[in-house]
Design brief:
It is a single chain. This protein is an alpha/beta fold and 398 residues long. The protein folds into two domains: 8-179, Rossmann fold (3-Layer(aba) Sandwich); 190-285 and 296-397, CoaB-like (Rossmann fold). Helices cover 34% and strands 25% of the residues. It is built from 14 helices and 19 strands. It has helices at residues 21-31, 50-57, 68-74, 76-82, 93-101, 107-114, 127-131, 133-144, 170-180, 215-226, 254-265, 307-312, 330-340, 381-397; strands at 8-13, 35-40, 85-91, 119-123, 148-149, 153-156, 162-166, 190-195, 200-203, 206-208, 230-235, 246-250, 270-273, 280-282, 301-303, 319-326, 345-350, 362-369, 372-380. The strands form five sheets. It has an eight-stranded mixed sheet, with helices on both faces. Strands 2-1-3-4-5 form a five-stranded parallel sheet, with helices on both faces. It has a two-stranded antiparallel ribbon with strand order 6-7. The longest helix is centred in the C-terminal third of the chain and has 17 residues, at 381-397. It starts with 7 loop residues before the first strand and ends with a helix. Cytidine-5'-triphosphate is lined by residues 194, 254, 273, 275, 277, 279, 304, 306-308, 322-325, 337.
């Protein structure tokens, strides 16, 4: 069964009689694990109150593009980046036409243009309006742009007509949303992912580590499972819950992470090294707590093994993807690591930008491989993970 665990769904409600079903849709999306925020067009507010949807979603409803107060909270660009999925339900005939034209004079239009997330539309309108060549042409145009549709269903309509145009049932729409994340792109593939920091002990109570939250690696594990892969996640100490259907190998030190990876790497098809591995560890671990005596204390450290480089030079060798966190000359440094570590792909990100990276829910990246690249604008880590998985699947078969 599909799910939406940890997915952020932006539900946009347009002005049609089916808007009353949106209240239940919020619930059905939440049942599948989604965090839901609601956007309403002006027309939608004639059919259902923002208060209802605010109460159900637990967040203020977004409805205005030019509202200073709203823009100070979560502005339209932030909202567009926040979403893992833009679900428009109901989608009216007018909304279809506006999306085709790329209009940005209301919040929905602006967000639809600004989001890199996939879009799912649940049309609802009078059957004659649905059948009209103008509407059908708009649907075809949007489908050609990669926009997904669910419904409409056929049957008796609010206006008394019978035919296609009823919005699909909320349960059905929620399942269609979940199914979008199940791409099957890595069906049957074995994927090994490292995530989080490592901890290198100094004594029984202290360690050297870093700020990695593990979120990017866990999002990749989710995206790989959604793509049909069998996933082993070798995870440093983090506070995250592993996605369902992922085998987790908890480790603490870089050496433990290497050992766990080597145990699995021979049977893995794809290795994604997302962990922030401590580059050095103390030469000796004190058996007792180190006491303070002198004004200064020097630590002697030794280089940790490079897990990614070790796996990428092993035989048989999986398809290897690394990460490069840089503060300057992103492309050059990332390309250098692609070559020196013998990788198939590297995901470079600029960690000098505080809005993305270690403890943020968002990221932006430059994906590089031997003869190409793809820049991904700032988006949620789940969306970036899905894009990385898509590119891995494409590169491996091209
Ligand atoms: N990596 C690894 N084992 C290490 C160090 C890094 O597997 N001991 C992996 C990371 O998971 C990441 C990539 O290598 O995929 C990062 O490369 P690295 O050269 O270590 O990056 P930095 O640590 O940022 O290097 P530098 O500090 O030299 O920029």
């Amino acid at each position: 069964m599909g799910h939406l665990n940890n997915r952020r769904v932006l539900l946009a409600v347009c002005g049609g009689i089916a808007a009353y079903k949106s209240a239940e849709l919020v619930r059905r999306l939440q049942d599948l694990g989604a965090e839901v925020r609601v956007l309403m067009t002006r027309g939608a507010q004639e059919f259902i109150t923002p208060l209802t949807l605010q109460a159900l979603s637990g967040h203020a409803v977004h409805h205005s593009l030019l509202d200073e107060e709203a823009e100070r909270g979560m502005g339209h660009i932030e909202l567009a980046r926040w979403a893992d999925l833009l679900l428009i339900a109901p989608t009216t005939a007018d909304a279809l036409a506006r999306l085709v034209a790329g209009r940005a004079d209301d919040l929905l239009g602006a967000v639809a243009l600004a989001t890199p997330a996939p879009k799912l539309l649940a049309p609802a309108m009078n059957q004659q309006m649905w059948k009209d060549p103008a509407t059908q042409g708009n649907v075809t145009t949007l489908e050609n742009r990669g926009i997904h549709f669910v419904g409409p269903a056929a049957g008796e309509q609010a206006c008394g007509d019978v035919g296609p145009g009823r919005m699909e049932e909320p349960e059905f729409i929620a399942r269609a949303a979940a199914a979008l994340f199940a791409t099957g792109l890595l069906a049957g593939q074995q994927v090994l992912i490292t995530a989080g920091p490592t901890r290198e002990p100094l004594d029984p109570v202290r360690y050297i580590s870093n700020h990695s939250s593990g979120r990017m690696g866990y999002a990749l594990a989710q995206a790989a499972v959604d793509a049909g892969a069998r996933v082993t996640l070798v995870s440093g100490p983090v506070t995250l819950t592993a996605p369902e259907r992922v085998t987790v190998r908890p480790v603490t030190t870089a050496q433990e992470m290497l050992d766990a990876c080597l145990e699995h790497s021979k049977t893995t098809d794809i290795f994604i090294s997302c962990a922030a591995v401590a580059d050095y560890r103390p030469i000796e671990i004190a058996s007792q707590k180190i006491k303070k005596h002198d004004a200064e204390l020097s630590l002697s450290l030794v280089r940790n093994p490079d897990i990614l480089a070790t796996v990428s030079r092993s035989t048989p060798r999986p398809y290897c993807v690394g990460f490069a966190a840089e503060t300057q000359d992103l492309r050059d440094h990332a390309l250098g690591k692609l070559q020196s570590k013998n990788l198939d792909m590297i995901v470079g990100n600029d960690v000098s930008d505080p809005r993305i990276g270690f403890n943020s829910d968002e990221n932006a990246a430059l994906l590089l491989w031997a003869d190409g690249e793809r820049a991904v604008e700032r988006c949620s880590k789940h969306t970036l993970a899905q894009i990385i998985v898509e590119e891995i699947a494409r590169r491996r078969t091209s």
